[in-house]
Amino acid sequence: MQQPAYIRQTLVALRTIAWKETHRYLRIWMQTLLPPAMTMTLYFVIFGNLIGRRIGPMDGYSYMQFIAPGIIMMSVITNSYSNVVSSFFGAKFQKHIEEILVSPTPNYTILLGYLSGGVGRGLLTGLIVTIIATWFTDLRIHNLWITISVVFLTSVLFSLGGFINAIFARKFDDISIVPTFVLTPLTYLGGVFYSIKLLPESWYHVSLANPILYMVNAFRYGILGASDISIGQAYLIICLFIAALGTFSLFLLKRGVGLRT
Amino acid sequence: MQALSLRNLNKTYAGNVVALRDVNLEVAPGEFFGLLGPNGAGKSTIIGIVSSLVRKSGGSVEVFGHDIDREPWEAKTNLGLVPQEFNFNGFETVQQIVLNQAGYYGIPRREANEHARRYLRELGLWGKRNAVSRTLSGGMKRRLMIARALIHEPRLLILDEPTAGVDIELRRSMWQFLRKINGEGTTIILTTHYLEEAESLCRNIAIIDDGRIIENTNVRELLRSLKTQSFILDIRNDVRDLPTLEDFHMVPLDDGTLEVEVNSDQSLSELFRQLTDVGVEVVSMKNKANRLEELFVRLVEQGGSSGAATVES
């Protein structure tokens, strides 16, 4: 193999897929960026402002301050996942994924290209929701490195989840099952709106099995400096999930599951 | 080194559906090669395997000497594919589609722009470069797929039914374009239902039926093996009063139309002489089917060749 030609092809292909994916969610911003901004604003108004005033402080912070990191993380998780699952399944459904499959683009480049779209949309949505959050509460970053690294890694993880979902999906219904019946409940029960210390002991331990709890709390630690769990444990869990889902995605691409007959 | 080499290629789909049975095929560089066969014969499966969209069950495939399993990068770099179904993003513009495809092959943007300009112009799509692809007509969509497949200037271009649903005028302009790029050195493999197309364009053809290659030969040699041709004659006389001819078998079709069989050792001059002798005035004449079509039907009906002998009639 001619190494320079291979490297050039891989880099140009990665840039092409990444730009195509970015262009896609920016072109349809009314469907991709505006809805999370609207929904999260309502969360801040209803839960943070109206109900939150009656709830009082949580872990030493106002309720609005407490839920803001969780709501930002919720939008990152949902948008990273839904960007990749809808884009990759759409490409499968319309068969234009074949444009890439017949080309010499390596599988890892295909995966990285689609992840870049999911991560880009997840982070951009997170930024928009963060800006909205600052209208409602005072957010000061406790640890910038933890904040950025946790949000980035979480976005990568859920982009991988969306990718795997898209590979197995055969119809449009299949791409909404996981977000509706798995992702949303786990996010709501992942300590976005409450500290798990408030739960009875048995539910406290059940909650520890929820991976989203670690991401929400690690992110909350980055912003507020408060967390229900150990940050090191959170990084370990996120990285293990990324490694497992990334390896599985590459395995599926190599086998051509859902893509090649 | 062959442009394409298939050895003992087998494919069995889920449910034990056998699509290919030990297919062996070689296509030389610079060739304009036709792959013919009835629906479901295995043509698209072969193309799918070569382009890595279908997983083979056995055998090997080489593109310009590069095995698609061991050297997929090199094999794919040399290959361009025009699939049967439209498979581009209907929300992207014509130019985005071809430029993205160039990107997947690692072509830098400046070079990709030059290629896009060249092929979109040559295929009459330059004026539509900013049009969203789903708004194009069927013929334009076909041409877009050809432009997209050529954007990285592959050495081997495979076209799966490229002129399906395209009007005659456009089909002929596409033939002209394909002849041109073949003349410039691109090896072309074409599957088509229009046997006139294969006869006009291809030097060699393979006929596949039920997953097996039943004929693989030069088009001229194959046509030479056609011992009988049928012609339709429009005549001024009433076919009910028609005398029989000594050397030709005639079948009346309707009031003013006859079907006549002419063997390869007979001539049309002789036919016309005998018709004139019995007072039949011929207004016009045409082939009943194109010659390759006659051969094709006979080969497929008889389950292939035990060579040219089977096409003699």
What can you tell me about this protein's structure?
The complex is a heterodimer of chains A (261) and B (313). Chain A is elongated, with a radius of gyration of 19 Å. In chain A, helix 4 packs antiparallel against helix 6 and helix 4 packs across helix 10. The two termini of chain A are 27 Å apart. Chain A has 261 residues and is an all-alpha fold. Helices cover 78% and strands 0% of the residues of chain A. Chain B is of the alpha/beta class and 313 residues long. Chain B folds into 2 domains: 215 residues, P-loop containing nucleotide triphosphate hydrolases (Rossmann fold, 3-Layer(aba) Sandwich), CATH 3.40.50.300; 67 residues, Alpha-Beta Plaits (2-Layer Sandwich). Chain B contains 10 helices and 14 strands. In chain B, a hairpin with a 3-residue loop joins strand 1 and strand 2. In chain B, 42% of the residues are buried. Chains A and B meet through helix 1 and helix 5 of A and helix 2 and helix 3 of B.
Number of DSSP E strands of chain B? 14
Number of strands of chain A: 0
CA radius of gyration of chain B is 23 Å
**Strand fraction band of chain B?**
25-35%
Q: Work out the count of structural domains of chain B.
A: 2
What topology, given as strand order, has the largest sheet of chain B? Answer: 6-7-8-3-9-10
For the biggest sheet of chain B, the summary is:
6 strands, mixed
Sheet having the most strands of chain A: none
**Helicity range of the residues of chain A?**
over 70%
Biggest interface: A-B, 29 and 31 residues
Average pLDDT score of chain A: 90
Quick synopsis:
The complex is a heterodimer of chains A (261) and B (313). With 261 residues, chain A is an all-alpha fold.
